[in-house]
């Protein structure tokens, strides 16, 4: 920590040792840091449920609010006929959020199909496919063939090319 490293991260699973709680690890690093570094606690499940918003949260919330109001005014113009609003299509109730790095509106009916309401999570999470790779990086005794299907070939080219498929 006294060198060029600016950040560190400690990850803890909720099923780890009963004595190594988040508070214990925070207290340990805080006392051992002695002014060299500081610590913060972020419990992701709780963080996603709310809490005190940061300046980034406030700024991002304002941007999403503007996009949502613009979307609503466009929708109202589309469905307004003869002094009445006919908002009975599936995309009339949406949730705004990030989808693959892009701010997108997702119809509630589509989200209902892919959401695990009991655990408040998506039913399919993209990062679960990376678990075998993470085990390989952590030096678990796991074979590369379990992670990547197909055959391995020896690479003899010295340069990479998109046209040749790398």
Explain the overall architecture.
By secondary structure, the protein is α+β, with helices and mostly antiparallel strands. It has helices spanning 22-33, 44-48, 55-79, 108-113, 131-137, 144-147, and strands at 80-81, 84-85, 94-99, 102-107, 115-116, 121-122. The protein folds into 2 domains: 10-51, no CATH class; 54-138, Rossmann fold (3-Layer(aba) Sandwich), CATH 3.40.50. The chain is built from 6 helices and 6 strands; from the N terminus they run αααββββαββαα. The strands form 3 sheets. Strands 1-2 form a two-stranded antiparallel sheet. A two-stranded antiparallel ribbon has the order 3-4. Strands 5-6 form a two-stranded antiparallel sheet.
- CATH topology description of the largest domain: Rossmann fold
Uncertain runs with pLDDT below 50, 5 residues or more? Answer: none
Helix tally?
6
Summarize the amount of helix as a percent range: 25-40%
**What is the terminal-to-terminal distance?**
38 Å
Strand order of the largest sheet: 1-2
E-strand count = 6
Give the second-level CATH assignment, the architecture of the largest domain.
3-Layer(aba) Sandwich
CATH hierarchy class name of the largest domain: Alpha Beta
User: What is the chain-wise order of helices and strands?
Assistant: HHHEEEEHEEHH
Give the domain tally. Answer: 2
Overall, the morphology is extended
């Amino acid at each position: 920590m006294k060198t060029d490293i600016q950040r560190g991260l400690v990850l803890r699973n909720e099923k780890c040792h009963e004595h190594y709680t988040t508070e214990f690890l925070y207290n340990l690093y805080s006392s051992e840091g002695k002014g060299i570094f500081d610590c913060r606690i972020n419990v992701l499940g709780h963080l996603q449920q709310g809490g005190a918003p940061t300046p980034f949260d406030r700024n991002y919330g304002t941007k999403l609010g503007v996009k949502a109001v613009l979307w609503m005014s466009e929708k109202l113009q589309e469905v307004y006929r003869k002094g009445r609003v006919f908002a009975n299509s599936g995309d009339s109730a949406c949730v705004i959020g990030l989808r693959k790095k892009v701010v997108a509106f997702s119809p509630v009916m589509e989200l209902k199909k892919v959401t695990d309401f009991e655990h408040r999570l998506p039913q399919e999470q993209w990062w679960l496919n990376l678990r075998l790779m993470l085990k390989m990086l952590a030096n678990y005794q796991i074979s590369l063939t379990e992670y990547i299907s197909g055959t391995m070939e020896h690479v003899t080219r010295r340069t990479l090319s998109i046209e040749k498929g790398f």
